C-alpha cells in the first residue's frame, strides 16, 4: 500500500527520474502540456492563422476601397443634386417674380375690364331709363289727348244741335268749295 505522501495530493512529491509513467501531479503537468500544445499550435497553425488573417485583411481592404468608391460616388451625386437644387431654386425665384408681375398685370386688366363693363352697364341703364321715360311720356300724351278729345266730343255733342250741326257742315262745305276753286285755278 502506498503512503499518503505518495499520492498526487502531496505537493512536494516528485517521481523518480528515469522511469516511464504518468505524472499525476496536476500543477506540474499543466504548464508542460500547455507549452507543448501551444508549440504545436504555433508550428502547425501559424500558416493557417496567417492565411486567415491575410484573407481577413484583404476583405477589410476591399471593403474600405468599396466604401471609398461609394463615398466618392455619393459626394459626386450630392454635388450634382445641390447644383440641380440651386438651378431649380433660381428658376423658382424667376417664376415667382414673373408670376407676381403676371398676377399684377392680370389684376389690372381685370380691374380695367370691370370698369369698362360697369360703364357699359351704366350706359345701358341710362338708355333703358330714357326709353322707359319716353314710353311713359307717350302713354301720358295719348291718355291726355284721348281725354281731351273725349272732353271736346262731349262738349260738342252737348252744345251741338241739329241747326248748329247743319251750319257747321255748310261752312265746311263752303270752305271746301273755295279751296277746290283755288286748286283748279
From TrEMBL:
* A Pfam family this chain is assigned to: ATP-synt_B
Recite the UniProt keywords alphabetically.
Answer: ATP synthesis, CF(0), Chloroplast, Coiled coil, Hydrogen ion transport, Ion transport, Membrane, Plastid, Thylakoid, Transmembrane, Transmembrane helix, Transport
Mind listing the GO molecular function terms for this protein? proton-transporting ATP synthase activity, rotational mechanism
Q: Which HAMAP family match?
A: ATP_synth_b_bprime
Topology of this chain in the membrane: Single-pass membrane protein
The UniProt entry's GO CC annotations, sorted and at most eight, read:
chloroplast thylakoid membrane; proton-transporting ATP synthase complex
State the remark under miscellaneous.
In plastids the F-type ATPase is also known as CF(1)CF(0).
InterPro entries per the UniProt record, alphabetical? ATP_synth_b/b'su_bac/chlpt
Compartment list: Membrane; Plastid, Chloroplast thylakoid membrane
Keyword Membrane: yes or no?
Answer: yes
Per its record, how is this protein called by name? ATP synthase subunit b, chloroplastic
Q: What does this protein do?
A: Component of the F(0) channel, it forms part of the peripheral stalk, linking F(1) to F(0). F(1)F(0) ATP synthase produces ATP from ADP in the presence of a proton or sodium gradient. F-type ATPases consist of two structural domains, F(1) containing the extramembraneous catalytic core and F(0) containing the membrane proton channel, linked together by a central stalk and a peripheral stalk. During catalysis, ATP synthesis in the catalytic domain of F(1) is coupled via a rotary mechanism of the central stalk subunits to proton translocation.
Primary site of residence: membrane
User: Would the keyword Nucleotide-binding turn up in this protein's UniProt record?
Assistant: no
Superkingdom, taxonomy of origin: Eukaryota
Under the subunit heading, UniProt states: F-type ATPases have 2 components, F(1) - the catalytic core - and F(0) - the membrane proton channel. F(1) has five subunits: alpha(3), beta(3), gamma(1), delta(1), epsilon(1). F(0) has four main subunits: a(1), b(1), b'(1) and c(10-14). The alpha and beta chains form an alternating ring which encloses part of the gamma chain. F(1) is attached to F(0) by a central stalk formed by the gamma and epsilon chains, while a peripheral stalk is formed by the delta, b and b' chains.
Q: Which CDD domains match?
A: ATP-synt_Fo_b
Coiled-coil annotated spans: 64-98
What family is reported?
Belongs to the ATPase B chain family.
Amino acid at each position: 500500500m502506498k503512503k499518503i505522501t505518495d499520492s498526487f495530493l502531496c505537493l512536494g512529491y516528485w517521481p523518480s527520474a528515469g522511469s516511464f509513467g504518468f505524472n499525476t501531479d496536476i500543477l506540474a503537468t499543466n504548464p508542460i502540456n500547455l507549452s507543448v500544445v501551444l508549440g504545436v499550435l504555433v508550428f502547425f497553425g501559424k500558416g493557417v492563422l496567417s492565411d486567415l488573417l491575410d484573407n481577413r485583411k484583404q476583405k477589410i481592404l476591399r471593403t474600405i476601397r468599396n466604401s471609398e468608391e461609394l463615398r466618392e460616388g455619393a459626394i459626386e451625386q450630392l454635388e450634382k443634386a445641390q447644383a440641380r437644387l440651386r438651378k431649380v431654386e433660381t428658376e423658382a425665384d424667376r417664376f415667382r417674380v414673373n408670376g407676381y408681375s403676371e398676377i399684377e398685370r392680370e389684376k389690372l386688366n381685370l380691374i380695367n375690364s370691370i370698369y369698362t363693363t360697369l360703364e357699359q352697364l351704366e350706359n345701358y341703364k341710362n338708355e333703358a331709363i330714357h326709353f322707359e321715360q319716353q314710353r311713359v311720356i307717350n302713354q301720358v300724351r295719348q291718355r291726355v289727348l284721348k281725354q281731351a278729345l273725349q272732353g271736346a266730343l262731349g262738349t260738342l255733342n252737348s252744345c251741338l244741335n241739329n241747326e248748329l250741326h247743319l251750319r257747321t257742315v255748310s261752312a265746311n262745305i263752303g270752305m271746301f268749295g273755295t279751296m277746290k276753286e283755288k286748286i283748279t285755278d
